[in-house]
Amino acid sequence: MPDKLKLPHTRYLAPDGAPCAELPAWSDDFDLLIRLYRQMLLTRLFDQKAVALQRTGRIGTYAPTIGQEAIGVAIGATMQADDVLVPYYRDTAVQVMRGVRMEEILLYWGGDERGSAYVDPAVAEDFPLCVPIATQALHACGVASAFKIRGQHRVAVTTCGDGATSKGDFLEALNVAGAWQLPVVFVVNNNQWAISVPRRIQCGAPTLAQKALGAGFAGEQVDGNDVLAVYDRMQVALERARQGKGPTLIECLSYRLGDHTTADDATRYRPAEEVKQAWQEEPVARLQAFLVRQGVWNAQREQALVGECQAEVQRAVEAFEATTPAPVEDALEHVYGKWPQALAEQREWLRERAARREVDHE
Ligand SMILES: Cc1ncc(C[n+]2csc(CCOP(=O)(O)OP(=O)(O)O)c2C)c(N)n1
Ligand SMILES: [Mg+2]
């Protein structure tokens, strides 16, 4: 590889939680690190619960975040309140940190539009998560253009997977971000798989970060299982964008420890040995091991925190389950201003069916 394409790669913690580079100055702020740990643990527990709710038919498909908690939590912890998040579907961790309620996330995956109408005014300008691959990268450039035109010192942060970086939308977004020097940060969650397609056959470039170079701005890799590394580099990228110094692409190297979604069975295409190896690197245990080494964490504190987070998840599940279901025909709303005849007929059919079911239930 030409030297120019050798990009920075940041890692502070080895998989066993031991420091493997000179730590950033803020790494002795244990209140901060414990806050990050709490959010990572909360995400992991929420994730387990969401999968269980899907398995028992109480929500629809869900995209687990397991293995990628450090990325979302570091993004959430470094963004300012008035920045705008333009997320994709594996962003539970960052959405919760921004102020999206866990019951809203359950509503979303339960097929209820109200899950994207965030109650907390702090997240009113964040986007709903995006399922069409990579389209959100362009939306983020639109947001960043608005910030630039208005002269605001705000940043648009957008996330996507490794597979998404092969999409035209992603490359077009990089191009416009570089051409217009937009205040945007692209975070690529490289979890090594795009459903059943492994990273090595998605793209011939040695790194995904180097795609930024073709667009004229900085790209770098970080260890996405090391929350300290992602936090550190996010801070730098956000500051650069805020000062009008242009975009950054951060490729976070992680691993999708779970299935692609609850509709997938990854054992059909992934070697068990690879997954076992990836568990050795995972982010939650890594930060926990670091905190234990620093003498600020122990089994007792862990147990108390697990209890606290489980109670928080349970409260969200109860709030979700206590929500009166939306009318079934809402699934067809917000697409057409004037309803096409065929869809209007389907709406009537749905209404009648729903009404009949109510009668059945009596
Ligand atoms: C435009 C579009 N094409 C195809 C799909 C189907 N699809 C859903 S997820 C996915 C793979 C995405 O992989 P990656 O970008 O690596 O993200 P990950 O799910 O691994 O986080 C595909 C092809 C889609 N949602 N949108
Ligand atoms: Mg992926």
How is this structure best described in words?
The protein has 362 residues and is α/β, with parallel strands linked by helices. The protein folds into two domains: 3-326, Rossmann fold (3-Layer(aba) Sandwich), CATH 3.40.50; 329-361. The protein contains twelve helices and eight strands. The strands form two sheets. Strands 1-7-8-4-3-2 form a six-stranded parallel β-sheet, with helices on both faces. A hairpin with a 2-residue loop joins strand 5 and strand 6 (197-198). The longest helix has 26 residues, at 30-55. The chain is globular. The model has no long low-confidence stretch (mean pLDDT 95). Bound molecules: thiamine diphosphate (TPP) and magnesium ion.
